[in-house]
Task: structure prediction
Amino acid sequence: MSDEENTIESQEQPNAKLKQSLSGKIAYLNALQDAVDQQDDRLTYELLDPERYHTEISSTNEAAKSGYFSLVDDVRSQIAHYLSYQLIDYLAEIYPFFYYREIAEGEFKILFGNWWDRREFGYLDVLNLEFQFDKDEYQKLSGTFQLDANNKHLNTENIAKISEENKQLETLLSNQDQRDSRKAQLRDQLADTSSNSSFWESGKVKEERQALKDELTKLTEEDQKAADARNTMKSNEDRILALSKEDTILSYEKQAIKQAFGSFESFTNHSKKLYSDYLTSLIGKEKVRADE
Amino acid sequence: MSNESLNPSSLTTNGRLVAYSDSLKAGLQHGIEFTKLFDQLTNTKDANELLAASTALFDFQMDTDYVVYPHKYDANDYYLIFMSRLLELHDDKDAVLNSREDNLKADTLFQTFPSIDDSEEFHFEKRPNQDGAFYVEQNSHQVIFSLNLREKTMYFNSDTITKLFITEWSGKSDNEAVTNAVDLFIQFGKYLVADFGFNVDFNMLDASNDKKYVLAKTDLSEQIMDKLFVATADNNLMLQNMDAVQGAFLDLGNQIIFSLYKEVAADGSGHWVITVQDPAEKYSLFEIFNQFAFLKKWFLDNLDELQIGSKMS
Result:
C-alpha cells in the first residue's frame, strides 16, 4: 500500500462512516415523520424509546435504531401534545375518573373526578406513558381503602371528636342562666358570712368563705369559656366541614376506582404498566385494521 | 267636588241656593259614576273592562265638599276584587274572597286559601310614597308581591317566598298543597301577562329554563359550595364541577339540573346565579326547594348568603 492510497482510504473511511450516520439520522427522522403522517402512534413510541419498546413489548423491529431520539429533543413537548389525543381517548375508557388539563404544551395535570373541588392527582407523562401521582394524595386514597374494610372514613374519628367538643360547648352556653343564678346565690352567701362573722367563728367562716369564693371563680372561668364558645364552635364547624368534604371526595374516588378496577391493588397494578397496556392496545388496533 | 265658577260667597242668596243644589247634584252624579265603575268591576266578563274599572276606582275620590258617602271600600279593596275577579274569569277557584261586616265603612275584604290555612288572611296595602299596592299576609305583614295596575307591573318578593312559602307553609302542609297555593299566585301573574301584557317578575317562582335567579350578594364564601357538596353526597347525589365557569351543578334525576355558578360580565364584574333546568319547564327554584328537603335546608341554613335579589323595592 502506498502512502497515497493510504491517505485516500483514510479519508474515504470516515466519509463513509459520516454518510452512514447521517443517513441513519435521516432515516430516523423520515420514519418518525411517516409515523406522524400515518398517525401511527405505536411506531412513534417505538422510535422515541426503542430499547424500552423492545424490552417491554418484545417486538423485533430492526428498523428502529436507538440513539437518535435526542434529535427531536427540542420538539418533545410538541410530540407529547400530539400523542396526547389518542392516549387520552384510550385513558378515558380505562380510567374514566381521570381528567386532564394541559398546563403547558404537552404537560398534563391529572384531575380526579368530575365532582366539585376534585383533587389534583399529579401529572401524566405522555412521552414515557407514566402516571406521576401526587404522593400525598395517593397516600390518602390508599389509606381510605384500608379503612374501608372497617367501614370507616379517613376523618371519622376526628369529626366525632370535634363534634363532641361542640356538644360540650353548647351545654356550657345553655347553662348560662343556671350559672348566673348560682353566682347570685354565692354572692349573697358571701355577703351573709361577712355580716354575721364574729371573732370566735372566724376560722370556720374563713373556710366557708374560701369555698364560696372558689366556686365563684370556677363559674366565672366557665363564663369566660362560654363567651369564647361561639367562636370556637364556628371554627369547629368549619373544620368539620373541611373534613367531611375530604371524606366525601375520598369516598367518590374510592367508588370510582372500585367501579372501574374492583380494587385498589388492581388499579395500582394497571397504572404501573400503562406503557405496555397502551402499546399492546395500539398493536391490537393495528391488527383489527389489517384484518378488515 | 267644588266648582271654581260657582264661588258661593260672590252670589246672591238665590244664586247660592242654586249653587248648593248644583253642588249636591254634582256630588251625587259623582257617586253614580262610581257605581257605574263599581258595577263594571263586579259584573263584567271582559278582562280589559275589569282592569279599566279597577284602575279607575283605585284613585277614585268618592266624596265631594257637599256629598260624603259614609260606607266606602278601601282603595286597596279594588285591587283585591280585581284579583279575585280575574281568577274567576279564568275559572281559578282556590282563592276565596271573604267579607267581614264593618260598621264604620263598607265591609272589610280579605282573601284566604282554605287548602293551606284558613287563619291566614291576605289583602292589599298601600305604602307611603310608593305607587300601586302590596299584597300582604295580614298577620305577619309579609309582602308577597307588589302590583301596579296603572304601570302594569307585578313583582314577587323573594324574601317572602323564602319566609312564608318555603319556611312556614312547607312545615304546615304537604308539598302539593303548598305548590297549589303558590301556583295560584303564579297563575295570577301569568293572566296579567297574557291578558294585559304586564311586566311580571316571578322571581323564585319562575320555572322557565333560561331564568337566572341572581343572588343578592355578589360574593359567596367557599363553604357554601362545600356544604352543598357534602349534603348532596349524603343524599346519594353528586355535585359536579363546571368546567367552563366557576361553579357546580347537580343532576336531581328526571333531567332536572340545578346549577350555581358565577356569571362574569364583559366589564369583569361578577355575580352568582342559580338556574333550574328541566325538559317541561315545570320546576322553579321555589319548587326545587319544596321538593328537595336537603336543598331547602342548605338554602335556609345559608340564607344570609344565598338570598335571591328582588325587583320589588
